[in-house]
Design goal:
Layout lengths: L8 E7 L3 H7 L3 H4 L11 E6 L6 E7 L5 E12 L3 E6 L7 E10 L2 E9 L4 H25 L1
Antiparallel strand pairs: 1-7, 2-3, 3-4, 4-5, 5-6, 6-7
Length: 146
């Protein structure tokens, strides 16, 4: 008997900043620390990041209540200002894959995020909620920078 993985999580959003600035938000640890946590009521993240193919990242996301969630992974592909592909590992999921694509548009930059290989629908939904919150934080962060 084979087990079927869930459908990929796909989110697209247009940011009113240029593509290099949005790409930097995904590659520079100092910028990543401003938004890469899924807690709209506050929180923080500690980022260790070796941004190169084969390089790794380590995120410790701190909830407002003091809990810590750790994410780790490896960069599989980096095309500057166009695409980043990396693995995403937590206590809940292992070796899932995130693809972030950047497309210049008239309004700024379209970001398309695809997160694939979830073991079940619950994990997919939890990550959908988390990514939506992270992207809302990113939007607030880059609007302040822009």
């Amino acid at each position: 008997m084979t087990t079927q993985k869930t459908q990929p999580l796909v989110i697209s959003r247009v940011f009113s900043i240029d593509t290099p600035q949005l790409f930097q938000a995904w590659s520079d640890p100092a910028v990543m620390e401003k938004w890469l946590f899924p807690f709209p009521a506050g929180g923080s993240v500690d980022v260790e990041n070796t941004f190169e193919v084969g390089g790794t990242y380590h995120l410790d996301m701190h909830t407002p209540d003091g809990e810590v969630y750790t994410m780790t992974g490896e960069y599989r592909e980096i095309i500057p200002n166009r695409k980043i592909i990396f693995t995403w590992n937590t206590t809940q999921v292992q070796e899932t894959v995130v693809t972030v694509e950047f497309t210049p548009v008239e309004e700024g930059t379209k970001l398309s995020l695809t997160h694939d290989l979830f073991p079940d629908a619950d994990a997919r939904q939890q990550h959908t909620d988390g990514w939506e919150d992270c992207l809302a934080n990113l939007e607030k962060s880059v609007v302040q920078v822009a």
